[in-house]
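Why do we bother with holo predictions? Because pocket geometry can differ from the apo form. Keep that in mind while you read this record for pyridoxal-5'-phosphate.
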Amino acid sequence: MTRVKKISRSANGSMSYLLQDDQGQILNPHSVGVGLEYPGVGPEISFMKETGRAEFYTATDEEAIQACMRLSRLEGIIPALEASHALAFLDKLVPTLRDGAKVVVNCSGRGDKDLDTLIQRGMPSSLC
Ligand SMILES: Cc1ncc(COP(=O)(O)O)c(C=O)c1O
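The structure, written out:
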């Protein structure tokens, strides 16, 4: 079983969430966005979760790839696959918002580093 647990890992005692198994062994996560392949988050993000100041959602590899291709097609911007996970979440978020609501997505990173992956996953060369 995989779970996320808050534990103290640093010498100064800061708390953060880590992906680990039932025995407490840290797991190697997978993501098509290689920058997300890290088993933990920092203490600031952990604190925001603890205090309800941030909410966290997931997107699959395929959802992120489709969102990346959509932004490339519609705007001519190739987002990094890491940020594409946030773009994928818009499909779930937007229908819940009132008319006229505005959403800001930080397109951190650069999708050109992900082109090999995107082409392998079917991105048309006209979008590259
Ligand atoms: C939040 C976030 N966005 C984007 C990226 C990708 O950045 P780049 O495309 O510059 O490698 C990373 C990489 O770790 C990241 O953590």
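The CA atoms of residues 23 and 52 lie 28 Å apart.
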